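Lab manual, section 2.4: Encoding a predicted structure.

Procedure: take the sequence of the chain (195 residues), apply the prediction step described in section 2.3, and record the output as structure tokens. A sample record is shown.
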Amino acid sequence: MKGYIPASRFLVAVVVVFLVWTDFPTRTGQAGAAVSQPSSSARAAVVTNRGGPRPPSPPTPGMDVLTIRPQAVVPSPTPTSPPGSPDSPDQKPQPILRLLGQFQVTGYSDSPINGTDGRGITRSGQRTRWGVVAVDPRIIPLGTELVIEDMDGTVFTALDTGGGVLGHWVDVWYPSDWEARQHGVRQLKVYMVER
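Recorded output:
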């Protein structure tokens, strides 16, 4: 009979059309072998029922999908000065300290108990704050920066005087009477900061 197509040929034709229609990848037949995909021109030739190109299909289960993630860009190190050199950005120049000698160091506050008027105004006209000390201006001029032994490297400024602060005596300002009393009377080395 003319026009008669054997069932086996018909079935093969249906499978081929289905494979082309679904863009099914072909395998080489070996386990673990590479999977080939139709080229982009072959995909463009496949047309849907509406006449437009078919969108790319999602990966078929069982296929390896390679994901490429962008890598972080690490800037190359810029040349810097060796640590400890004067040009090194992480090193601040250390002040030059000149020993003034051993001083009696005490503490005071703005309280009238300590002989102040309680207003917190220093002899220089500035307000009292941590880092202010009272001195005898004949020994240490007002405005001089000082470093006192065992005071955590704080740079103090001589901005105040006191009636009882005479000779080799430095009085450190504290925010409360209790802290001033806790300081007590100490014999400590005092250094002048030279800039």
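Check your result against the sample. The longest helix spans residues 7-22.
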